Amino acid sequence: MSKTLKIARLLTFFCIISISSFCSTVVFAQKQDSILNSIRAKRINKTPQIKASVPTYKPRYNLGFIQYTDLVSLTKTNSQTPAKPEKILSVLKVYPNPVDDQVNLILRIDKESNLSVKIMDLLGNEVVTLTNERIQPGEQTKNYTIPNRLNTGIYFLKISAGPETVVKRISVL
Hints:
Blueprint: H1 3-22, H2 33-38, E1 61-62, E2 65-66, H3 68-77, E3 89-95, E4 102-109, E5 113-120, E6 126-135, E7 138-145, E8 153-161, E9 164-172
């Protein structure tokens, strides 16, 4: 080793020793956890206030439902409110669910109308039409066989009678 290289290394060693002796903390050591625990967070006594005269937003309708106060005011102002159209279709039960090879429907129809039962996929595409027939009023039980080409998964049963449509979720095994 050359003489200048030995001197340079010796100087570097002495510089490191002198710096560590002049400083109160160790040069290459981490800070102790007890030092970090002694630091306290600044406590804020006041919460910031927004000073503006912006009226709060209050939606008139909440997710498609009319609020009670709006309903009361509507009935007071509109005493000549037309009657709600009667319900034609009531789907009482869809069973068994999950479906294996056959699905049963118990439904009530108040007046004679066309009944359409379709199986739709999750995207709303029509997969199978189970029936499209004219049906008499009353409570009825209908049985439909599920085609074998239908894959296992979740589908929707779309039941339509006249202008009304009811959608039920079914799982096909």
